[in-house]
Amino acid sequence: MKVELPIWKTLILAGLPVAGSVLLLNIQLRVDVLLLSIIHDAKQVGLYDAPLKLYELLFVIPYLFGGMMMPLFMRDRGDGSGSFGPRLSAAVSASVIISSLAFAVLFVHAESVVTLLAGEEFLDSATPLRILAAAALFAGISAILRFAATALHQPGKMLRVDIVGVSAALAATRYSFRPMESSAPQSASYAATS
Amino acid sequence: MTSTAAPHHVTQAIHPRDFHSVLVAVGAGTALFVALSLAEYSGLHWMMAIALCVPIVGGVLLMVPHVRRDLRYLAA
What we know:
The structure holds two protein chains of two kinds. By secondary structure, chain A is mainly α. Helices cover 86% and strands 0% of the residues of chain A. Chain A contains seven helices and no strands. In chain A, helix 1 runs parallel beside helix 6, helix 3 packs antiparallel against helix 5 and helix 4 packs across helix 5. The relative contact order of chain A is 0.15. Chain B is an all-alpha fold. Chain B contains four helices and no strands. Chain B is elongated, with a radius of gyration of 18 Å. At the A-B interface, helix 3 of A face helix 2, helix 3 and helix 4 of B.
């Protein structure tokens, strides 16, 4: 048994775009909390972070589903039966339908879900949860397409799309979060009253 | 150039039937939204409402031919 360096080199080079894509995906998932922690106080971050945990759980489901579909995508592409397109369409359809049902549940009962998971102190997290539930719908589609791109041997394109996605997420997050109002006047007024 | 080429390629790649699933999803989501809202309005506990409404909407979804065809693709 010996290490076949040429094989390892081929595998590592082939896997680099996929690794980069996964890295960028994690950055995309975390960058909003990081920027929020810079711009707002810890309470706001906590209110946002609680529904984000549920969003991450929701995101895992289509990601696992896409992983389960991956061998079928590869088989379709290999045998040339032309069933890759319909199967991909069916997988995206299933993800969209399940995500829309989850969105409906979380939209109507956001307060109850947040209270159950985190307590009544996190009741203000209901609105972020509604927004994140809508975002999970699109994240589910992207998770399926991510595996389809890998099956089509297009990890380079996937990486480029992820770079654009992270850049857009960074820009959108930076410009959508309003800077925290200066706490100095509040502190001054609090000190004056007390 | 990219801006003019992209819509052309997208319309070539996407068939109108691909939007059926989106319409089904929107319909199912709206139906569940209405059902849960009505259940909440009638005073039903939210967990009970979910336990009742989700299987009903899911069952109706399984009767849609387009969804059944998609399920066959997922299982094969």
